[in-house]
Amino acid sequence: MQVTVQAGRVVRIAGDAAHPPTDGALCTKVSRYAERSYHAERVLHPLKRCGPKGAGRFERVGWDEALEDIATRLKAVAARDAQAVLPYSYAGTMGMLQGESMAARFFHKLGASRLDRTICSMAGTEALIATYGGKVGMLVEHFAESRLILIWGSNSIASNLHFWRLAQQAKRDGAKLVCIDPRRTETADKCHEHLALLPGTDGALALGLMHELVVNDWLDHDYLQRHVDGWPALRDRALQWPPERAAEVCGLDAEAIRQLARDYGSIRPAAIRLNYGMQRVHGGGSAVRLIALLPCLVGAWRHRAGGLLLSGSGWFGPARDDFAMQRPDLLGGRRPRLINMSTIGDDLNREAAPDFGPKIEALVVYNSNPLAVAPQSRRVAQGLVREDLFTVVLEHFLTDTADMADYVLPATTQLEHLDVHTSYGHTYAMINEPAIAPLGEAKPNTQIFRELAQRLGFTDPCFTDSDETLARAAFKPEWVDFEQLRRVGWVKLNLPEAPFAEGRFLTPNGRAQIDVPGLGVPDHVPNYESRQSSPDLAQRYPLAMISPPARNFLNSSFVNLKSLRDIEGEPLLEMHPDDAAARGIASGSLVRIFNDRGSYRCNCRVSERARPGVVNGMGIWWRKLGRDGSNVNELTHQRLTDIGRAPSFYDCLVEVETE
Asked: Which helix or strand (DSSP H or E) is residue 543 part of?
């Protein structure tokens, strides 16, 4: 971002035209970042609860009073069992400083429970590690040269604008674009073809494509022989999935699968832009493994504009110095339990038990809004409202989660603090310089945890490291020169343009892996909730529901910006005309969506953006901005993916009725 400041106030935010991936463009959300920072409802002073738990009533207090009381309360809990303290954070800021640097040091020294940060990408992450040896892929800039691009599980116009610019360039040069997504997204509108498969059937589609690649011999036998382990077993599995079988599972036409396989087997270079929506189901990890193997079958990796990109964040692994930043040695040999952030609803309501450990007595939330974003939110609310749970939230606004806190501490925005960033969509390390001084009494996360550490008596020198010191320690100098980073604003990693043209995957033997110890040969894994796996449940709740993000929100961030809410309008359920007609539902009707976990009311938009049999509960609205103080996560469950212990948000059956 290029930020223009006049008289100490931000007056303009634009994309930096000199930064190649940005090329001068910002998405609608981030272009409103000044509006977010100067919002009239911004929390600018420490707040202490003064009403019933969950009522969202607070009084202003000073920093000293707040930090002394928080430290006293945390110290008392830790004296009984430090594992009764739980940090909860994710990607509210993705910076290496304001994310997990001083915060990680603090909780390591305390001996608090560790958080398994699974909520977004862990199924896909572990699938890529199993297959390629790392969370790596092709370089995004080369999509501009691809001749076939499969955009799989991604509404790129809304969530991946800088890739979309490259895809459009390829399209103008004659490339064919195919969108694979249960919803007819804005991206699907702009592609040549759209395959609206049923949620959770991506692995079956990949196997159906593999079947056609095998029987028509659209394979790169040399690449398979030299650079892939386990191909015979996958070949046998693929032969069990003719297009007719895959089409029945996916809810597609068999000829559409044959045509896609024909294109993928014959057009060079072919590239896949995979995203995380498709891995938020029971079989999400296996599906990613299968899709990640497709470029190996046809030798797409030989071309710099061929292959696959889900995330390239693993390329930064050798460049980052996470040990220096997070200091896990402060644990001193202790191995605190690991709490999965995706099952926080159940875990906040658990009593002490030998297989669980102590009851969670204190929760410190930063960079996240679990009450809005975690699955089965009614259970999360039941846990957060406990009178015996001490909750501290570092925030910009009184979010759903902040309303449940005992203390809310004002955090800085990216315009107000120093940070350094990696990326998962490109391969540039970046620095975030503060553009303005912190508003009100806001403090960076790093400073808040420094001051808490001091009050808890942590005397290790690392707790006095400044943000400047942290920023200089974030990257190994042989990979990223900090002075260049500060001078230019970014540093591009030195990587091969076609990283796997000659194999050299990041696995121990340099070959892509199919039959992985502990995982076996990947196969289609049905949803927990589907006609195939749970027919009795499907009798009562016949509609599959996915909950993709609304175009103008970033998960639950930006939801409280009026300019963006005015564009979105209100919480919506998209329903196909056939499903609506069968239930007597008209567009604009108030509907109730329900299952055994709860119900959620919103307006219905009858639209062919939804495919038959699937409804789209557009998220993620703050609960208090929806009807009845709830959002779509009332209906999602806490069961986990086959790989990666991640949530299955899009693996959900519901019924819909008019109100």
From this structure: strand 543-546
